[in-house]
Specification:
By secondary structure, this protein is α/β, with parallel strands linked by helices. Helix content is 38%, strand content 19%. The protein is globular. Bound molecules: nicotinamide-adenine-dinucleotide. The site of nicotinamide-adenine-dinucleotide has 31 residues, from helix 8 and helix 9.
């Protein structure tokens, strides 16, 4: 127990470094990138704080230069899954009873390590093996991860302070217990910050975790684990394994002590996870928490009087930064027919100046998509659009995987509002546009709302307050993060808590108190100071 109600150090959003020419951070990041580019890392799993190497290795492939050998990771087996569960459960007794300030100190230190000595290393790792530009990396691997780690501590304290009222002679206390069992964290390739946050948020609340990162984010996951260990995270609290996803899921979801899943990834995988948990419900000691943030088909909708240049800029940044591989990326747009030539002009002007290549060249706005399967899938969508009599390629449409998995920023104009690229998540630099008749703007909102199964992010552009009000209401359930006159990407922890509903997830809002509430199970303690000794009540006399 603490012997004081400790105030936290100041917690604010981590300032984003610019990496502008001549800045010290630019030189330092480039030098770290170059060093790491020429090293070959041998990346182990980490179980019970120990490095585990199996000899069965897979290469880390930089998406923008897949022949470069920057290292390999060791694949585990089902035994490692079982070992990591047992290890986590053993660590639970001590970790779950550790005081809040000591848990907090570990994750605050981890944030400071990333903000300081590990900043270049985690950024360079993300640039090299996830092909993010320096700026996209800085807002993800450094700033967002730091923000998650720091703000989660603040939210945890706020949760702990949320107490019921008491009355004369009675003291009511809520204890926010960690869940009884272990948490399974499964993270996606696209955000280093999400990869760090999924295990860390649950662990901060006193839970023990088995973490399986995406095979396409292992290089930066390795740095995250180094940071957690240097920050003093006790052995066994977070165990990082590189094992077959389906076999791991089968083992974890059949375990009686499975207490919760913290997932971010595709809708298909999450639905499968949910079904498996449902089928196994009789095996568990407790109802597992199911938290999943999944896919999106994020929109931009423009009203006829909106600023065409602002819309084109939002489309460009929203659809093509990080090659459209953000769950929030704009991938369908609804433009009034009378304004299309204006928007198109600005969009094509801007896209004509976009350069694509290695993230090591800081002048590039875009780099490669994550892996060959994604490249092939995107190329097939583009080819079908080229062949379709319902579509016209307005910009881009070329691709090349000889050196890296490069896909040009591609804009498709379709006559069919239900064309496949208006409805399905592609997860790449492909934007599809549908023109609606100006006079049918209200019907276009309904069309937008009913077109896709997803409801993650979306943006409307209008300066007409009646239109803003009407569109905001009409699209109430079309997005969990809704933007007015801005691109639909770039949510910041503590400013725009993130998540969507419908097929986009359980909307538990990463980067907010709501998410942390899923990782604790409150116990109500009522204490009566002087216990009654007479069972009768006054009304009985
Ligand atoms: P993915 O679904 O392919 O993989 C996500 C994770 O699930 C990986 O760790 C993977 O190994 C694991 N996995 C794969 N098959 C599995 C199985 N059968 N059982 C258990 N785990 C399995 O997703 P991805 O390509 O890494 O990431 C992109 C997806 O993530 C997109 O759909 C994107 O929209 C979504 N995403 C959503 C958010 C959000 O906040 N809503 C954020 C980031 C990414």
């Amino acid at each position: 127990m603490p012997k004081g109600m400790f105030a936290l150090p100041p917690i604010d959003n981590e300032p984003i470094k610019s990496y502008a020419p001549g800045s010290p951070e630019r030189e330092s990041l480039q030098s770290t990138y170059d060093t790491m580019w020429n090293e070959t890392w041998d990346i182990p799993m980490v179980i019970n704080g120990k490095e585990v190497r199996t000899g069965n290795t897979q290469r880390v492939l930089p998406p923008h230069d897949h022949q470069q050998n920057v290292g390999s990771y060791h694949l585990g087996t089902n035994e490692h899954v079982t070992e990591s569960i047992e290890t986590a459960l053993k660590a639970r007794a001590r970790w779950s009873s550790m005081s809040a300030q000591n848990r907090a100190a570990i994750f605050l230190k981890a944030a400071d390590l990333i903000a300081g000595p590990y900043r270049d290393r985690i950024n360079a790792a993300t640039m090299i093996a996830q092909s993010k530009t320096a700026f996209q990396t800085e807002i993800d691997a450094a700033c967002e991860l730091i923000d998650f780690l720091r703000f989660n501590v603040k939210y945890m304290y706020e949760i702990y302070q949320d107490q019921p009222s008491s009355s004369d002679g009675i003291w009511n206390r809520l204890e926010y217990r960690p869940l009884e069992g272990f948490i399974f964290a499964i993270s996606p390739f696209n955000f280093t910050a999400i990869a760090g946050n999924l295990p860390a948020s649950a662990a901060l609340l006193g839970n023990v975790v088995v973490w399986k990162p995406s095979f396409h984010q292992i290089y930066s996951a390795h740095v995250i684990m180094e940071v957690f260990q240097e920050a003093g995270l006790p052995d066994g609290v977070i165990n990082m394994i590189f094992t077959d996803p389906q076999e791991t899921a089968d083992l974890v979801f059949a375990h009686p002590d499975f207490a919760g899943i913290h997932f971010t990834g595709s809708t298909r995988v999450f639905k499968n996870i949910w079904k498996t948990i449902g089928n196994n419900i009789d095996k568990y000691k407790t109802y597992p928490r199911i938290v999943g943030e999944t896919g999106g088909k994020d929109f931009v909708w423009m009203y006829k009087e909106a600023n065409a240049l602002a819309v084109a800029t939002a489309l460009n940044r929203g659809a093509f930064e990080f090659q459209g591989q953000k769950c929030s990326a704009a991938s369908r747009a609804y433009i009034p027919r009378s304004r299309w030539e204006d928007v198109k002009g600005h969009l094509v002007d801007q896209l004509s100046t976009v350069t694509m290549g290695s993230p090591r060249d800081f002048s590039n706005f875009m780099t490669a998509v994550i892996h060959e399967a994604s490249f092939d899938k995107l190329a097939a969508y583009i080819d079908r659009a080229k062949d379709s009599n319902e579509c016209e390629i307005v910009f881009g449409g070329n691709y090349d995987k000889s050196k890296g998995y490069f896909i040009e920023p591609t804009v498709i104009l379709t006559r069919n509002p239900h064309y496949e690229t208006m409805e399905e998540e592609l997860f790449g630099p492909v934007l599809t546009i549908y023109l609606y008749e100006d006079s049918e703007w209200e019907a276009s909102l309904q069309l937008l709302d009913e077109t896709s199964i997803y409801a993650l992010t979306g943006a409307i552009f209008s300066d007409d307050r009646y239109v803003v009000e009407r569109a905001t209401k009409a699209l109430e359930n079309a997005a969990g993060n809704f933007y007015v006159n801005d691109k639909p990407t770039g949510a910041v922890v503590n400013q725009q808590p993130f998540g969507g509903a419908r097929a986009s997830g359980t909307n538990d809002k990463a980067g907010s108190k709501l998410n942390l509430l899923r990782w604790c199970s409150p116990r109500m303690v009522k204490e009566t100071f002087v216990s009654p000794t007479d069972y009768t009540y006054p009304f009985m006399t």
